[in-house]
Amino acid sequence: MAEEKKEQSDKKERALLVAVQLPNRPDVTPLLRELGDLAETAGAEVVGEMVQPRDRIDPGAYLGSGKLEELRELVLETGADVVITDDELSPAQQKNLERALDVKVLDRTGVILDIFAAHARTSEGKLQVELAQLRYHLSRLSGQGTALSRLGGGIGTRGPGEKKLEQDRRAVRSRIGQLRRELEDVVTHRELNRKERMKKGIPVAAVVGYTNAGKSTLCNALTDAGILAEDKLFATLDTTTRELLLPGKQQILITDTVGFIRKLPTELVRAFRSTLEEAAFADYLIHVVDASDPEWETYMKTVYETLDLLEIREKPVLTVFNKMDKVGEEAHFHDDRAEKTVRISAGTGEGLEDLMDALSELLRNGKKRIELLLPFEKMSLLSEIRTKGELLTEDYRAEGVYIEAYVPAEIYYRIKV
């Protein structure tokens, strides 16, 4: 009996993917491929897909009646346990689809929320995921008790889980209020940490990019941060900040952020705003792009659209085309919004020195070059130069310390006084 239960728990759900191709939309094929990756990351096995060209999405059941019948036959034929739509469903659409197909129905948002629930590690991450899930499910609570009991686990049932979703709306709203208050405390703590960093004057670079572009691998390669790095979508959700010493002995803080994705659910953007705002408070952005992916230009556009949504604009951007070991050198890559671009392979270490040099150059912009003998009575400035500037030469002499460095304007004028 125990072995039978284990076999059932280890069995992957069989998923059918469904999308509607509207006339004014790009080809949904890449989106379906990505939806399949999401389903597999969530633990399902994709057993088929279906696309219906339509002038508009059916407001009642997402698909037209004829295609819905065809989908029902495909569910029976493939033995699918779950149908996943690429578009977000209204509560009515989800309910009508489940009634017509007699299997669990999820949309892209539900799958992403499930992945986030499985991958959240820190208390903050878990709070953010639960808040996003409860907001998403609040409008779907009516009549869900029986359906959720019928599901018996699988994708879409992690995180807050069956028990919370069967509570009435008042209880869920109360829990949402509690989560908001707890997250406000987390935000306050994060803001204090930011202020401490600002006092020290150490520049901060936020690593942003499409999910699975190699952000965590890059952070590990640069700083030995020990961040989980897997070939999966949203392998890491929690923000990690580590110090990096550049070739000119200048310090910079590198902050890993959650990956972006097309159709990133609004609830996740709202819930993870405090984490994503690490990019807003950073001095620089390191934009990591998977150069081996044919869709790299589309992914870049998605990242910038998400940054614009968060009102993160006009920050110096260093774009890193990653995974170059999988791409021919003759390939052409560009980013018009970046101050500089470099080609690397975070996995092999190729190009990391070029990246460090590019970071040093980026930090050097706006700083003034000095060549002088710093008297011993002004030695307290030397540690500031090391922290906030780029110290090129340090030579101790009888009269003081001869230095060559790039320094911020505020240090430059204090030295010159």
* Uncertain spans: 1-8, 143-152
Number of separate strands: 13
- Reading the helices and strands in chain order gives HEHEHEHEHHHHHEHEEHHEHEEHEHEEH
Output mean pLDDT.
84
- End-to-end distance, in Å? 83 Å
Major β-sheet profile: 6 strands, mixed
Helix content: 40-55%
Radius of gyration: 25 Å
Structural class: alpha/beta
The neighbouring-strand order within the major sheet is 6-7-5-8-9-10
Shape: elongated
> Helix tally?
16
Residue share in β-strands? 15-25%
Model description:
The chain is 45% helix and 20% strand. The model is unreliable at 1-8 and 143-152 (pLDDT under 50). The strands form 3 sheets. The protein has a 6-stranded mixed sheet, with helices on both faces. A 4-stranded parallel sheet has the order 2-1-3-4, with helices on both faces. Strands 11-13-12 form a 3-stranded antiparallel sheet. The longest helix has 32 residues, at 169-200. The chain is built from 16 helices and 13 strands. It is elongated. It has 417 residues and is of the alpha/beta class. β6 (240-245) and β7 form a beta hairpin.
